[in-house]
Amino acid sequence: MAGTSGSYTTSDLSRKSGGIIAAALRRPVIITQRNKPRLVLLNIADYERLKRQSDARATGTLETVSDTLLAEIEKAVNGYAGSDG
Predict the structure, then answer these.
(1) 71 located within any domain
(2) Does pTM top 0.90 for this prediction?
(3) What is the C-alpha R_g of the chain?
(4) b/e per residue, 25-60, with b = 16+ CB within 10 A?
(5) Is residue 19 part of a domain?
(6) Which of 12, 30, 52, 66 could pair covalently with 8 via S-S, beta carbons 3.0-4.6 A apart?
(7) What protein family does this chain belong to (predicted)?
Protein backbone atom coordinates (compact mmCIF):
# COMPACT_ATOMS: atom_id res chain seq x y z
CA MET A 1 0.00 0.00 0.00
CA ALA A 2 1.43 3.39 -1.05
CA GLY A 3 0.26 5.37 1.95
CA THR A 4 2.87 8.12 1.87
CA SER A 5 2.07 9.28 -1.67
CA GLY A 6 -1.72 9.43 -1.29
CA SER A 7 -2.13 6.96 -4.14
CA TYR A 8 -3.59 3.48 -3.78
CA THR A 9 -4.51 0.66 -6.14
CA THR A 10 -8.01 -0.75 -6.47
CA SER A 11 -6.65 -3.90 -4.80
CA ASP A 12 -5.49 -1.77 -1.84
CA LEU A 13 -8.97 -0.27 -1.67
CA SER A 14 -10.64 -3.67 -1.40
CA ARG A 15 -8.16 -4.94 1.22
CA LYS A 16 -7.52 -1.82 3.31
CA SER A 17 -10.56 0.39 2.80
CA GLY A 18 -10.58 1.64 6.41
CA GLY A 19 -7.05 3.03 6.23
CA ILE A 20 -7.65 4.57 2.82
CA ILE A 21 -10.85 6.23 4.00
CA ALA A 22 -8.97 7.59 7.02
CA ALA A 23 -6.32 9.01 4.68
CA ALA A 24 -9.00 10.55 2.43
CA LEU A 25 -10.48 12.35 5.43
CA ARG A 26 -7.15 14.20 5.73
CA ARG A 27 -6.40 14.81 2.04
CA PRO A 28 -7.60 13.67 -1.41
CA VAL A 29 -6.50 10.14 -2.30
CA ILE A 30 -5.94 8.85 -5.83
CA ILE A 31 -7.13 5.35 -6.68
CA THR A 32 -5.25 3.71 -9.55
CA GLN A 33 -6.21 0.79 -11.73
CA ARG A 34 -3.61 -0.87 -13.95
CA ASN A 35 -1.13 1.87 -12.97
CA LYS A 36 -3.40 4.66 -14.22
CA PRO A 37 -5.21 7.18 -12.01
CA ARG A 38 -8.93 6.36 -12.16
CA LEU A 39 -10.63 7.90 -9.12
CA VAL A 40 -10.17 10.50 -6.42
CA LEU A 41 -11.53 9.91 -2.94
CA LEU A 42 -11.94 13.06 -0.87
CA ASN A 43 -13.77 14.24 2.22
CA ILE A 44 -17.16 15.91 1.90
CA ALA A 45 -15.89 19.36 2.92
CA ASP A 46 -13.38 19.37 0.05
CA TYR A 47 -16.05 18.09 -2.35
CA GLU A 48 -18.53 20.80 -1.33
CA ARG A 49 -15.83 23.48 -1.67
CA LEU A 50 -14.99 22.29 -5.18
CA LYS A 51 -18.68 22.27 -6.11
CA ARG A 52 -19.14 25.84 -4.85
CA GLN A 53 -16.10 26.99 -6.82
CA SER A 54 -17.42 25.28 -9.94
CA ASP A 55 -20.91 26.77 -9.48
CA ALA A 56 -19.43 30.24 -8.95
CA ARG A 57 -17.46 29.99 -12.17
CA ALA A 58 -20.55 28.97 -14.15
CA THR A 59 -22.71 31.79 -12.80
CA GLY A 60 -23.07 34.76 -15.08
CA THR A 61 -21.20 33.43 -18.09
CA LEU A 62 -22.55 33.96 -21.58
CA GLU A 63 -23.27 30.25 -21.80
CA THR A 64 -25.66 30.44 -18.83
CA VAL A 65 -27.44 33.71 -19.67
CA SER A 66 -30.94 33.30 -21.08
CA ASP A 67 -31.64 34.48 -24.62
CA THR A 68 -34.10 37.06 -23.27
CA LEU A 69 -31.57 38.54 -20.87
CA LEU A 70 -28.87 38.52 -23.54
CA ALA A 71 -31.20 40.42 -25.92
CA GLU A 72 -31.90 43.00 -23.18
CA ILE A 73 -28.17 43.43 -22.54
CA GLU A 74 -27.49 43.87 -26.27
CA LYS A 75 -30.31 46.42 -26.52
CA ALA A 76 -28.92 48.38 -23.57
CA VAL A 77 -25.39 48.31 -24.98
CA ASN A 78 -26.59 49.42 -28.41
CA GLY A 79 -28.66 52.19 -26.82
CA TYR A 80 -25.68 53.34 -24.79
CA ALA A 81 -23.40 53.26 -27.84
CA GLY A 82 -25.96 55.25 -29.85
CA SER A 83 -26.20 58.00 -27.21
CA ASP A 84 -22.51 58.96 -27.51
CA GLY A 85 -23.28 61.49 -30.18
Answers:
(1) yes
(2) no
(3) 23
(4) eeeebbbbeeeeeeeebbeeeeeeeeeeeeeeeeee
(5) yes
(6) 12
(7) Belongs to the phD/YefM antitoxin family.
Tell me the residue range of the domain where 78 lies. 7-45+59-82
For residues 38 and 70, what is the distance between their CA atoms, to the nearest angstrom? 40
For residue 62, the one-letter residue type is L
How much of the chain exceeds pLDDT 70, in percent? 80
The SS3 assignment for 35 reads coil
Instruction: Determine, yes or no, domain membership for 54.
Output: no
Rounded to the nearest angstrom, the gap between the alpha carbon of residue 44 and the centroid of all alpha carbons in its chain is 13
- How many C-beta atoms lie closer than 10 Å to residue 8's C-beta? 24
Name the domain count of the chain.
Answer: 1
Within a domain: residue 1?
no
